[in-house]
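Dear Dr. H.,

I hope your travels went smoothly. While you were away I took the liberty of generating a structure for the chain from your last submission, since the lab meeting agenda had it listed for discussion. I wanted you to have the full record in hand beforehand rather than looking at slides cold. The sequence, exactly as received, is reproduced here:
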Amino acid sequence: MKAHPRLEDIVGITGTPGTGKKSVAPLVAASLGLACQGIDETARALGVPISRDGAVDTDGLKARLRVSGGPSVFYGHLLPYIFDPEAVSKVAVLRCEPSFLKDRLLQRRYSGPKVVENVEAELIGLEASDAYDAFGPSRTFEVDTTHLTPESCAQKVVAVLLGKKQPTRRIDWVGAYDTGAKLRSLLSVAGS
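The corresponding predicted structure, in token form, is as follows:
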């Protein structure tokens, strides 16, 4: 197991929309002296088709993506579907307590169905599960961003990447939503 990212490798940051990837990734990259690239922005730059609802053609992006120019921090919720496991040294999965995430997404004016879809994905740990499946448990770790500033979150990610701190255990939100009433409250949005 590597203690820190090799300089020729990619560091990945993924998570459900709204967990802080776009804010945290540039800070992590700056701390490590690496370039930073968003998957959605990379898709646009490469001319990969993106649907009206923002869905990226992951097969098209994977086929066109040629990582060069040295190590980078790549971020985006599609990370597990874009990169081959051997290309990525470590992956930080940013997590956020589902009720806080719901509030963030509503503030961003996500549609009701998109809020429910993303909150449900966070509740069951979909992005984390996909990252663990794609990159393995020795390369994947989670960080709870619920009460962290982007700067403090980036510091935690960097500490784990450099081997200065051990990753925390896997995050499980399901136990906090152990009744039908709690789940209905979490997964309901007015007007959806």
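Two observations you may find useful: The longest helix spans residues 112-124. Residues 1-7 have pLDDT under 50 and may be disordered.

With kind regards,
E. W.
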